[in-house]
Amino acid sequence: MTHCPHALDDGAYVLGALSPSERAEYERHLAGCPACREAVAEIAVLPGLLGRLTDPDSPDLSPSSPLPDRMPALLTAVGAERQRLRKARLRRRVGAVLVAAGLAAVVGVGVAGADAGWFGGGGSGAGQVTARGTQIGVKLVAMQPVAGRVPITAEIGINGTKWGTEVSMRCTYESGGDSSKAWTFRLVAHGADGATEQVGSWRAAAGETVEVNGATRFTGRELVRLELTRYDGTPLLAYDVP
């Protein structure tokens, strides 16, 4: 592992012990060295800690009195601050993992398989992970058939956020078919640059109504179209985002 030549300069930099030329060189180095930036951030509290260790209202200027050894207390305080910062970073990482896991549980990923009948193949309805009966809190509008009549209708609603777009959809499948067979469907988001992203997938049988909540990374004007497709990518219904 390559040793950073400035690995020991963080303390001198924070305490202002570097010469002007050395400080300028170290700041140029910080722009490209994440390890040194993190080290500086962790001990940025040093000046404040040093100030607390000395009472400015009653300074002891007597040369005959030995200076107290403040280093152990300073090291203890710096160590505690670094531990606090590490714990805070760990909590943020764990929180991000939990949010991602919750989103995956809501969206649900259908089990892909060969479908039968009009949709292309048969399969049992077992193993479905689609969210059913969820609360949809946005206004829904009807999706339109892509090519001719299809035995499925759907309403869709979107809610823009800073990180992307939340998508809610309610699908109804015509009754009268074989309810023992299930078909795989997907909801795909299309971006303005031609990129696509799967919002979710699920399985459903004839006569079922399914509600799905998902999300896409496309934000604002980036999201131009949402398509409900068969398992093989054939578009059935579409919604063009205004």
Task: Walk me through what this model shows.
With 242 residues, the chain is α+β, with helices and mostly antiparallel strands. The protein has 5 helices and 9 strands, in the order H-H-H-H-H-E-E-E-E-E-E-E-E-E. The strands form 2 sheets. It has a 5-stranded antiparallel beta sheet, with no helix packed on it. A hairpin with a 4-residue loop joins strand 3 and strand 4 (165-173). Helix 4 packs across helix 5 (71-107). The chain is elongated and about 85 Å long. Mean pLDDT is 74; it is low at 106-117 and 121-134.
Keywords:
242 residues, alpha+beta, five-stranded antiparallel beta sheet, 9 strands, 29% helix, 26% strand
Question: Concise description?
Answer:
By secondary structure, this protein is α+β, with helices and mostly antiparallel strands. Helices cover 29% and strands 26% of the residues.
Total strand count, please?
Answer: 9
Query: How are helices and strands ordered from N to C?
Result: HHHHHEEEEEEEEE
β-sheet strand percentage: 25-35%
User: Runs with pLDDT <50, length 5+?
Assistant: 106-117, 121-134
Radius of gyration: 30 Å
Structural class: alpha+beta
Largest sheet: 5 strands, antiparallel
| Helical residues, percent | 25-40%
